[in-house]
Amino acid sequence: MINLKGGVGKTTLAVGMACELAKNYDVLLVDIDPQFNATQWIVPAETYLDWIENKKTVFDIFQPSEGDTLAARRRNAASLSNAVITVTPGGYDLDIVPSTLDLIKLDHAPRGTENRLRVFLEPARQKYDYILIDCPPTASIFSYSAFLASDAYLVPVKPDPLSVLGLPLLERAMGDYEDRSGQGLMRLGLIFTQVRQTEAMRKTMAQVRRDYPDEVFNSHLVQTTGVAEAVDAGKPPQDFHKSRPKLMHDLEDICQEFIERVDNL
Ligand SMILES: Nc1ncnc2c1ncn2[C@@H]1O[C@H](COP(=O)(O)OP(=O)(O)OP(=O)(O)O)[C@@H](O)[C@H]1O
Ligand SMILES: [Mg+2]
């Protein structure tokens, strides 16, 4: 999930989709944002505080591990067994690599750091059906790491004029990543988020569909106060379907389309 524009709904979509997919699949959500919003949302505070005392977070993935011997360094390194918390926000198991504010310290990390996420996730490719990475809204070492670790990227788009102006900037950043790495990355598509039925939004969405033919998902996520309620309760957004039936159907439809697009990659 990437968009260099902040606040467009990347984390909401990542958490919503991860919870939806977790009903039927093995899913890993990777939070690589120093703001750690996805972590704060679905990992209960007590569990998290205990975890960061004793276990690893995404911070440790980006850090060389300590130890006098190679064996000790390997033992101390972040791995799927010590950096993944299983949570059940919607009643289904969902695995998450939690993030931490400490990640800001790593923004000017040494060369080679950008490959560490890809290497960490290598064994996860066998273990999980889907791995979703929630990126920060910056063209940082974290976003570049996600680029190198991924098979495709998904762009959540809030259909307002300033967010849409950000799309060419994202394309430029992805182009830079391609130049730097010498490899391309498929765009799985664009998903509208925080959609309201206003004339202005309808016009903006039509424009984006013209600019990115066949790329925009048919389904979108509506804007609703159910999202804030879900964050407050540490639950998936679709769990507020009793009062907000739209959200549940939106996420089911988005995931259905996501699965089809991934199958066609
Ligand atoms: N569909 C929605 N309905 C209502 N509020 C929403 C919706 N999607 C997101 N929000 C709210 O908008 C804000 C930004 O959403 P979110 O954190 O998902 O965006 P983001 O792109 O991940 O932001 P950042 O760039 O900071 O990582 C949050 O307060 C979130 O609760
Ligand atoms: Mg976010």
Automatic annotation (TrEMBL):
Alphabetized InterPro entries for the sequence: AAA_dom, DNA_Partitioning_ATPase, P-loop_NTPase
Limits of the AAA domain: 1-174
Protein name: ParA family protein
Species, as recorded: Luteimonas soli
